[in-house]
Each structure stands twice: as structure tokens, then as C-alpha cells.
Amino acid sequence: MIRILLIFAALLALAGCKEDSPTASRETSPGGIGYTLIHLPGNPDVTIHAAWPTDWAYRADTNKAAPTVGIDLLLTGGAEGYPAGDAPERFADLNSEADIFASVNDHIVGQLTFEIDHLAETVAIANAHLRAPTLDPDWFARIEADVAQSLAEAQAQPVHAGFDAVRWSVFGEQPLRNGLSLDEPGVLQSLTRMDVVAWHAETFTNRPDAVVVAGGLEAEAAGAAVDALFAGLPEPNRTVSRDVSPDFRPRRILLHRPDAETTTLSFVAPLPPTRQGGEFEDLILIHALGGGDQSALFDAVRTDLRASYAFGSGIANFTRELRLLFMAGEVAADTLGDAEGVVRDAYAAFREVGPQGWLDDRKAPFAANLSEMPDFIIDLARSELQSQLDGYAPGRALQMPEELDAVTETSLLERLRAAYPAPDDFIIIAVSPDADAVPGACVIATPPEAAACP
């Protein structure tokens, strides 16, 4: 879901002002680091975003939990000159913000936001934690325990188990599956602090794939800030390789969970990656398909099944290249078979005729957000960073109103028919206490068994 959320955030976050319009330019710092500068005249804040490439999740020789624990440990576990736990408090005192997160297993993204007056101190704290983190053992143990508890709670949920089964059916024993699910036995129990040390050492270099600076800085000051942030980081010492062979063959799978208190049904199929365009069409289409009580799926389930539950749709990413459409919801156990047919038929009709009603009405909420949310620089930079990773020209985040305006009823139908899966092209996964709820389905007792479903 991450990419569609980023696009929605961009709609909420176009920065600008009526008197001094924002500008975008491609710059190079004095130290030779390329970055995109979105200059917002008069804005007192600055945000710097960087995306470091990684293939940690794709490799058989890595512990897949290291990034999950390492992301939290990096900023809390101390650094040269900073005791463990000190950085979050210092950032709060400076009214600065720092965040590190994984972006669909292909990049580790860092965000640093601060008032211009606090640039030097904020950047110095961040640089120390990127360059020479302590990765305190006590904090490592604490974060590892928190991750283990959260993961166990999630894996106990039927819908989570269903999507684990989908990942098994698509990737089987390939390392990326464990990178996505963290379901390999002992993955957290076998994690050591040295795994996190190794992950940090190979990830945080002075050559990220993309850097964006947004705010009130001019190019000279922005370049100096970029160099200060990356000072002392090493050159990359290995080539990133993201080899994976997904299997999206249509299958019907029922995960039998006798203890399940709810029954869930999900449809999953691939969509083209965002670098190929069509994102605004997707945003409108997904909302019209299953984004609320006026959507096609909601209406079909309520009308044809006379059900009180809802069914929705969304977009998610396994990786930047492997993007997927999903339709999912809870259903009544005794209508699971009927629900499968109703959802499939509703999707088939939607794919044929597209959204109903006035297109301008569907665009209006997004257009309103563009005009009403003019100064969210974090979301603006985040959207620009993702566009850079997709290969778009600098400043795309500032051109999104024009992209929205360019969407037509014709482009929506063309997108549906050219990019969206046929009704019979989905992997269908049901999770039910009734093993016979979906006639003809491949019935499994645990997610890993989905890999063998024909």
C-alpha cells in the first residue's frame, strides 16, 4: 500500500505560496552529492530526505529482521558523542524530527526536518548516528523484544495469515518472502546485534540513490547541509542485486483456521510499477472500486448479498517493481462461496465500464487538498523522493495538479483495460473455520502450504 499512500500524501502536501511560487532544480553539493532542491521562499523549515539502495531482503545470507530492528535502534541506540536514548530528546528540544524507514524492501529512507536556525546542531546529531552509531546492546534487546511481540500479535490475525499465504504462493522459499513476512522460524530469536552492525555498514554510504531538500534554503546552504549530513560515510562496497521470480498464477486457496473468529476473503493480482505512470488514474479508480460506502464493491456486497459487512480495495507493493491490486474484507462464513462470485462479478463490471458519475466530483477532494494544504514540506519532499526513484524529472511533485487535471474518462478506461487484471487473473485466498467453505479450493492448514497449491 505504501506507494498509493505516498501519492495521496503528495496530494495533501504540495508546498507553495501565492506570492512566491516554489521552484525545483537539480543541484550538486560541493562534495559531489547530487540532490533535488525544492526551494520554498520564506519558509523557515527545511527537510532533507535520502534513499539508500538495499538488497538485504533478497539475499539468502542475511537475517531478515535486521532492518526492522536496526531502523529503530539507529536513532535511539546512541552514537559517537551521544549516549543511548539522547538523540530523540535532543531533537525534541530543537523542535526537529528524524525518521528512518524501509521503502518496499528496495531502499532505506531517512528524513530529517528542522528549523533553519537549528540546522547545524540537528544535522550534526543525525550525521553522528549515521556515521558512528553505538547500537547499544540493551536498546537492541529492548527493541527486538518489542518487534517480536508486535509480530506475534499480527500473525495471530486471520487476515495477516491470509496475506502470509499469498506471499508463500507468490515467492515460495525465495528469501524475499521472509523479508516481507518475517515468518521463518527463529528469524528474531537468531538475530544478533552484529547482524544489525553488518546491515548498517553496507547500507548507509555516501552514495544514496536519491536526495531531496525542501524548504527555505538557497542552493549554496542546501549543498553545505547535504555534505554535512553525509560527512564521513563510506563509499559503497558492493553492488545491489535484486533477483526474484514471482509466480502470480491465478489460484484459489482456503486457509483452514478452526479457531478463526472471522472469515476473510482476499483477491490479489499484479499491477504495473509506478515508474510506468498512471498513478492518478489508479488513485481515482481504486477509490471508486472499493474506497467507501459509494464504491462498486461496497454496493455489490450490500445489495447482492444483503450483507452488513464491507468490502474494500487498495494497492500495495511487494517491491518497487512488484506492485499489486487487492480486494479484501470480512464475510459471513456461510456466504463465503457466494461472496467470491459477487466480488468477481462486481470487479468485472467495473473493469468494463469504469467509475460512474461525474469525473470532476471524483477529482474534487484531491484538488481541494492541493489548494488547502500548501505547506507540508515533509510530504512534498517524500513524494519528490519517490518520483526521483521512479526516474521522473526533478520537480514532479510540483506538477501533480496538472497530472490530476489531465485525467479523463477515456484515460481511466484505457488504464483499466490495459493495466488491470482480468477477473479470472487473481490469486484468491480465504481464511475460514470451515474447510469446505470454498468448493474446489486448495485447502491448507498453514501459510507455507500455499507454495504447493496448483
Walk me through the structure.
Helix 2 crosses helix 5 and helix 4 packs parallel to helix 9. The N terminus is likely disordered. A 6-stranded mixed β-sheet has the order 1-2-6-3-5-4, with helices on both faces. A 6-stranded mixed β-sheet has the order 9-10-8-11-7-12, sandwiched between helices. It has 16 helices and 12 strands. 42% of the residues lie in helices and 18% in strands. It is globular, with a radius of gyration of 23 Å. With 454 residues, it is an alpha+beta fold. Strand 1 and strand 2 form a beta hairpin.
List the helices and strands and how they pair.
Blueprint: H1 2-12, E1 23-28, E2 34-39, E3 45-53, H2 66-76, H3 86-94, E4 97-103, E5 107-115, H4 119-131, H5 137-155, H6 158-171, H7 175-181, H8 193-203, E6 210-215, H9 219-230, E7 252-256, E8 263-271, H10 279-290, H11 296-304, E9 312-317, E10 323-331, H12 336-353, H13 359-372, H14 377-389, H15 400-405, H16 409-419, E11 427-432, E12 442-444
Parallel strand pairs: 2-6, 7-11, 7-12
Antiparallel strand pairs: 1-2, 3-5, 3-6, 4-5, 8-10, 8-11, 9-10
Helix pairs in contact: 1-14, 2-5, 2-8, 4-9, 6-7, 10-16, 11-12
